[in-house]
Amino acid sequence: MKYNPNEIEAKWQKYWAENQTFAAKNNSEKPKHYVLDMFPYPSGAGLHVGHPLGYIASDVYSRFKRHQGFNVLHPMGYDSFGLPAEQYAIQTGQRPEDTTRVNIDGGVDKEGKQIAGYRKQLDKIGFSFDWAREVRTSNPDYYKHTQWIFIQLFNSWYCRKQGKAFDISELVTVFEESGNALVEAVCDDNVAIFTADEWKSYSDDQKEKILLQYRMTYLAETEVNWCPGLGTVLANDEIVNGVSERGGFPVIRKKMTQWSMRISAYAERLLQGLNDIDWSESIKESQRNWIGKSVGALVTFNVKNHDEVIEVFTTRPDTIFGVTFMTLAPEHDLVAKITTPEQKEAVEAYIEKTAKRSERERMADVKTISGVFTGAYAEHPFTKEAIPVWIGDYVLAGYGTGAVMAVPCGDERDYAFANFFKGQNGMHEIKNIFANVDISEAAYGSKDNVEITASDFLNGLNYKDATAKAIYKLEEIGQGKGKTNYRLRDAVFSRQRYWGEPFPVYYVNGLPKMIETQHLPIILPEVEKYLPTEDGLPPLGNAAVWAWDTKQNKVVATDLVDNVSIFPLELNTMPGWAGSSWYWMRYMDAHNENEFASKEALAYWENVDLYIGGSEHATGHLLYSRFWNKFLKDKGFAPTEEPFKKLINQGMILGTSAFIYILRENNKIYVIPQSLYQKISDEAKASFNSKEYTDPENIDWNNVLELLSKGEMNSQFVQPIHVDVSLVNSSNELNIEKFQNHPLYIEFANAEFILDENGKYIVGREVEKMSKSKYNVVTPDDICAEYGADTLRLYEMFLGPLEQAKPWNTAGISGVFGFLKKLWRLYFDDNGLIVNNDEPTKDNLKSLHKTIKKVGEDIENFSFNTSVSQFMICVNELSSQNCHSRAILEPLAILVSPYAPHIAEELWAQLGHTTSISEVAFPAFEAKHLVETNKEYPVSFNGKMRFTIELPLDLTAAQIEEIVMKDERTQKQLDGRTPNKVIIVPGKIINLVG
């Protein structure tokens, strides 16, 4: 009976689906365990073998936990809104909902492309997902609840005093009773103070404008990353080197009215919560840096000849007397107000130039020094000295106050800026306020061993004492106060896109109103074009039916807007992270029509016990998810403060790309070997002069560099070309015939190949990211078809530690496939089942229990690669022991089950069981089977080992000596002699001397 993985796997995948084997219960006597993967964005490209790595790891763990008696929730869904689907729709004229559906379910798209479909690909790998709970963020029955959460945020405010969010109605009550003077809230800057009587005298619109300054989600003019080419705002992580990650379009900084989320209100809780979760230190540190807590002072500088003031946050108020100049962000509101006529042209030119650089680019570029003097001066709060005000792109409007008090003697960047502009109008000489410190070559940025000088009342003080006194004096004169600041900014929540969650918002007199929750969802309308309108409105501006009728409570035709009972709806959509910021809760109760999840389901599952996903989400997704979870906890919905107890970042599986090297010579193309390509310098990747070299066989290939350096050849580029890895065998040999007939490489159909001494062309190899554009993609479908899903699962786990990047090498697959066939042969021969009821031997039990111990510990420690090694050792040992005992092979099938579930189910069924192996108890480890009872002693004569003898460990030295002396091998060595001395150390050595 042969091992047939395709037949076995199809059988058990059908069984699991029909029997809902992995359906989790929302109430169980078993302890719960929630295992979650970061859900995928379903692109038409489908899965390659790198994508399932984390899913396989989480599946092994989920199956293991079921064996341990847990009620396991292991769901899967799709993060199906986003820019890629919209861009594809624009390019191909297809509806994003259609392409998204085909990408998930499979089929043929409008362009005739056959799409495998994520769901079918995932099913082939045999995951134990509870598919009954599948979610798709682009489905109205899902985003209905995203809209509901948005409304909760709009109707909430954050109380600093109590450190949590409350309903906005409670704030209104406070305003009605006592105004806002004593309210400790996270709100907009510079909120005007009013009394209760003044509040009551305001119109409804005035009250709404004030409340917008307090709401957890609010409308405000914000600096954003605007991408004209895509017609939308981009998040920082969607920009690479100043251009959009998708399409490579330029990105500029621009002010726009946007919806924002007050994530900054939760900065301290987000920071402190990191102490309570089991995440890697590197991920925690990324979040700490993004939150960016700093303690210092907020200092107010008056602007000379203006009514304006510049507020600066500094962590070094002790250096207040060392201020040499000030720098504002080019986008700062004050720049236009304080710039002098003489400096206006230079300032405006600089601002225009800066707008083309992303914030990330500006933050990362520490080498370029640039700035412009505004012509204005601020006034030092103590000395009243005039301080020149500059603008510079190293200062960002959204960080701190968008202004810096520059102390060059104590800060390297300020020092470099001051030196760069030294001698120019508007740049004073650097002041040194540190006693006994030389700043002629560099700034002194340390807080240690500081003694302040040239600083009036701070003279002679150290950093700590000077800081405290400076804050006290600033507060005394009303020009500063102690403050804790965070780098974390409120998150922009608007996107000028079509394919995203519609806001449940309409506008009356320009002010936002929420649609009542019983009328949700507000469904994305049909549009003819997914591009912005001709007058620059977002794509929803093209919708013919996109207005809110407040009498009928439904969406009606846009041209019916009368601003009496029918009003315009919001034209922006929510960002991609909206749906992914709460999806783990929806899995808890995926079909609840009335709530995002019931209180009972939330109370039972609480939060995610294990979360596995890529480290690229270290800040964005994880930070936003934690924020939404904390908010929902404040509002009484989420049961826990943190959403994810344990987080593991899987490494990337890299592709091994194949290259040929193209040398173009007029109308001739040569394919040269990698060895030659490596000899040609970067400056001299050139081809041959066709007049002198016409026949490749006559070319002196080793003379290339010399000829190039003499200028005797044309300087045409020698180009490495990616070759589809399917055209290369395991020996790196290119199939030239298939290559030249391949539609991708028609250009090279008549190319002349320079072959090696064996008449072969050996491709170059390079490990890089697996990508279709690099033609190094290996699909799981191909591996499953040829070797089976169990082989794929085992191999991916065997490649190396889960969290490390590792290259894919298809050549290694056959070894894992061979292991599964060897495992199969323990149970079957050509005639059928050969398992017997023989009593297991001591060695059988030892091999089994070593494996039970190792596999159990490895899975708990996520060391999956060493488990696979142990399986191979165990099967080799049992094979050599000729073991076919049921007492050994039944528990072995259970051990293998998390990793190779299909073959395990088949073995279990063939052994006579009628239920799935998936919830059979994990075998118990018994240490007694690993206790050594015998010892293989080396028997030495005069220090030289001549043979070994196995003896019980409980023998005395005298008993050992008696047995050894009677052994015929000893007698042969002694040849009638009597040894002078017999040295025996029980459990260690036997040595006969003389």
UniProtKB/TrEMBL annotation:
A Pfam entry, by short name: Anticodon_1
Residue intervals of the Aminoacyl-tRNA synthetase class Ia domain: 11-156, 753-795
Methionyl/Valyl/Leucyl/Isoleucyl-tRNA synthetase anticodon-binding domain location: 845-956
Catalysis: reaction(s): tRNA(Leu) + L-leucine + ATP = L-leucyl-tRNA(Leu) + AMP + diphosphate
Domain named Leucyl-tRNA synthetase editing: residues: 288-473
Binding site for ATP: 772
UniProt-listed Enzyme Commission number(s): 6.1.1.4
GO cellular component, one term: cytosol
Primary localization class, coarse: cytoplasm
'KMSKS' region, short sequence motif: residues: 769-773
Name by which UniProt lists this protein: Leucine--tRNA ligase
Organism: Flavobacterium johnsoniae (Cytophaga johnsonae)
